[in-house]
Specification:
mainly alpha, 2 domains, two-stranded antiparallel sheet, 11 helices
């Protein structure tokens, strides 16, 4: 193979990749190049995305542990995976299930006449997957407190929780959404099923952390998860209080229209 200079860093290249920056040897874009790129997309997804999805469904805790220990070559990056799955979840909930309109109908049936509350119900139901991603830093902070002595840092807990979120999102797409589809004509039943789905989260957490910390007795894992749930409840209460106070102060001193937005009609 002839030697040439890298088009990116000017380093001499004798192989297919630059030894300095890693860029592939220059190849003019033609039909073969485009076909190769398309093929690479499907090969990479098949090796990474579907492989990771299957591993997570079988045992999310063990999969996360293997990734953290350095077995990463065949895995899709966990945080990126949460975004991909969130996109699929939102597409299904908004475009196929039409949860936005169903939740608004539910609030009307329950005589929840506040436009703010109606919009909150609709947004959480349709976009909960994105909400869970945004809360990953908070979840990581909370789970690290009871598990701190086991040696993993805050950023490693972000990765752990991304696996938990991915597993819950997968269960929602595969199991929950088909059930919600059956109840789409009955907003009350759909809401009941949707809210009940959150009850499995403690069990998912126990299963995940037992799979991750397989050397820790189940009893200790359960105690730590109870601590996680208590801290989560405390954080939720604090967020509600702070948000409510901030909302009221903003309405009183900045824009009174927001108070009308929240007021029952």
């Amino acid at each position: 193979m002839l030697e040439e200079n890298c088009r990116n860093c000017k380093e001499a290249i004798t192989g297919n990749f630059c030894p300095n920056c890693g860029q592939r040897r220059y190849k003019r874009i033609n039909r073969a190049y485009v076909l190769e790129e398309i093929q690479d997309i499907f090969v990479d997804v098949n090796k990474g995305f579907f492989y990771s999805v299957l591993k997570i469904l079988r045992n999310p805790g063990k999969t996360a542990r293997e990734y953290m220990e350095g077995n990463r070559v065949d895995h899709y990056k966990p945080i990126a995976l949460t975004f991909v799955l969130a996109g699929i979840s939102i597409f299904v909930s908004v475009s196929l299930l039409n949860l936005n309109d169903i939740m608004k109908k539910y609030t009307e049936q329950q005589h929840i006449n506040s436009k703010l509350m109606s919009d909150i119900f609709a947004a959480i139901s349709s976009y909960y997957a994105i909400l869970m991603i945004l809360l990953l830093p908070v979840f990581a902070f909370i789970t690290r407190i009871p598990f701190k002595k086991l040696g993993h840092n805050y950023y490693e807990h972000i990765v752990m929780n991304s696996y938990v979120v991915s597993y819950y999102t997968l269960v929602s797409i595969i199991v929950l959404y088909p059930i919600l589809f059956l109840f789409r004509q009955s907003p009350e039943k759909l809401m009941l099923v949707s809210q009940s789905s959150f009850l499995i989260l403690p069990f998912i957490l126990v299963w995940f952390f037992k799979g991750f910390y397989n050397q820790i007795p189940l009893k200790k894992i359960i105690i730590k998860i109870l601590a996680v749930m208590a801290l989560t409840l405390l954080a939720y209460i604090l967020v509600v209080i702070v948000s409510t106070v901030a909302f009221i102060l903003y309405g009183l001193f900045v824009d009174k229209a927001v108070l009308e937005y929240a007021k029952p009609k």
